[in-house]
Specification:
Blueprint: H1 3-12, H2 15-24, E1 29-30, H3 31-36, H4 42-54, E2 58-63, E3 66-71, H5 73-87, H6 90-100
Antiparallel strand pairs: 1-3, 2-3
């Protein structure tokens, strides 16, 4: 595996970091909002956020004196998807079938 892939899986290895990612799926959140959900110290959450950011799984932006975090969905999907495609090639076919499904009905879209 590449160093990039290793950093993603290292970031996903801890339950607190996985929970942070799940919480960010609903949208951007301030560092304080994220920290308030956990019973660990602020510096511990900061380290988790730093590791997630270093792996490219979240992004941050400053808004005055606040740091806002967002999920980097594409990076997460590509990293995990590439790994699955390598160890489980049938995932490539399943992904293509899902991509072709109609959004409302679930029917497979007709390709011209």
């Amino acid at each position: 595996m590449t160093d990039e892939t290793n950093s993603v899986f290292e970031a996903l290895a801890h339950p607190t970091r996985r929970q942070i990612l799940q919480d960010l799926k609903d949208g951007e959140q301030a560092a304080g909002e994220i920290a308030a959900r956990f019973s660990v110290s602020g510096p511990t959450i900061s380290r988790h956020l730093g590791l997630l950011r270093g792996a490219g799984l979240i992004t941050e932006r400053r808004d005055a004196n606040r740091i806002l975090y967002s999920l980097a969905e594409e990076r997460l999907a590509l990293s995990v998807g590439d790994f699955l495609s390598t160890v489980c090639p049938e995932q490539i076919v399943l992904r293509e079938v899902r991509r072709r499904r109609g959004p409302a009905t679930g029917d497979v879209a007709v390709q011209p």
